[in-house]
Amino acid sequence: MSLPAFLYSPDGFQVDGFRLMGRRIAGREFLRALADRLRQQPEPVRVFCPDPTQAQQMADQLAQAGAPATLQWISMLRPDLLGAAGTLHIPDPGIGRWAYARERVGGRHYSLSGVIHTLCSTGAMDMLARLVLDPLHSWDALICTSRAGRDVVRRMIEAQQEYLAARCGAQRFETPQLPLIPLGVHCRDFDCSPAERVAARQALGLTATEPVVLFVGRLSLHGKANPLPMYQALEQVAEQGLPITLLECGEYSSAETGQALAELQRLFPRVRFRVLGGDRPASEVEKRQALAAADLFCSLSDNLQETFGLSVVEAMAAGLPCLVSDWDGYRDTVRDGVDGFRIPCRALAPESAPDWAMAHDLGLLSYDLFIGLLSQTVVVDPEALTVRLTQLLTDPALRQRLGAAARERARAQFDWAVVFGQYEQLWAELAERRRSDPGLPFP
After folding, report:
1. Distances, alpha carbon 249 to alpha carbons 5, 257, 259, 276, 281, in Å
2. Are strands 378-380 and 345-347 parallel, antiparallel or unpaired?
3. Widest CA span of the chain, in angstroms?
4. Under a CB-based contact definition with an 8 Å cutoff, are residues 253 and 219 in contact?
5. 409: how many CB neighbours lie within 10 A of its CB?
6. Which of 34, 199, 263, 278 is most enclosed, with most CB atoms within 10 A?
7. How does residue 441 score in pLDDT terms, banded at 50, 70 and 90?
8. How many C-beta atoms lie closer than 10 Å to residue 356's C-beta?
9. Cα 100 to the chain's mean position, in Å?
10. Looking at residues 395-400, what average pLDDT do you find?
11. Beta partners for 277?
């Protein structure tokens, strides 16, 4: 099967010049997976974008990934030319917008596929609510990267259908497929030899034996995770006489956070804090160095934005046992007791919390404040966290067993060679749906 056409915008696929965010990293790595596919099966690539300049940017990215490609630019004013591709793939959940453009040439002319990322913003929720109204069909798809994300999409669709049925007496609804396909990583990027581990520790000023716990991601209280439970648990374990280094690899959300590092060291004196990045995004070299040097990975996300968690899968690919919160997208990555441990969480019942969603919808709360307040209604079980952390830091054999299982799971489930194959299978299935649906004659 030939590849679909790709909607290209630098904001969805590039990290240089943009704020470093998971969706942009996912887009960049998707293009690397496309480059791998083109090296195996070369063919022209159709690019749907405003002008040839952006098409050339995509060509440059593919060339940097090792696959110089012949690109066919398709103007956004010519959706009729997408019929030859069969599918238009969009790097975000906004497939409804492009369904209206398709109506100019007929809803069966080609399929649409999109992919979810963060879903809790007003814009994302509006997109989901409109899926019931937009001219979408069963031969379209919104790819969900986790079960938690798919549950949100389903609930929004069902709520809108119930509203329209009660308000307008609507009875028939046609909505897109909601396949479950994870985000991918290039596992080969995270293969670290024992010699590299030794070199990484030496470069970071770490001894060969001191336990090193790693966090990778935005160092953001409101947008990623409250780090206090992790700090407290590490301090409790260190009180047992075990020296611990916490290696945090990422960018602070504000300058004030960085200025608090000395205060953290005072509050948790038995934990040695090291930061890579901090006032800037950590480089890929620094991230690899951190993964090579670490003994285990810890990420206790408590934020509604976490629909997947790429950093967790990267750590798994590096062979690290993962200690994560039993929360949202993380539940689809780490198998409790197999690849690491998931720490139970509790959340305040929605009816018990202030109506921050309405306040945000009315413009009374900024998005950052909204998600930050919601994250404060979630708590990680501190006792379970301390127990699991103690187990992992005091039992090298356990770390080795869980880390080996994590690496194998990453290769089998999350490597882009596997994930991109699932994309291609989906695109083929959508094409077959268009051909076989009896509602309209196939052109």
Report:
1. 36, 14, 16, 5, 8
2. antiparallel
3. 74
4. yes
5. 18
6. 34
7. very low
8. 17
9. 28
10. 97
11. 250
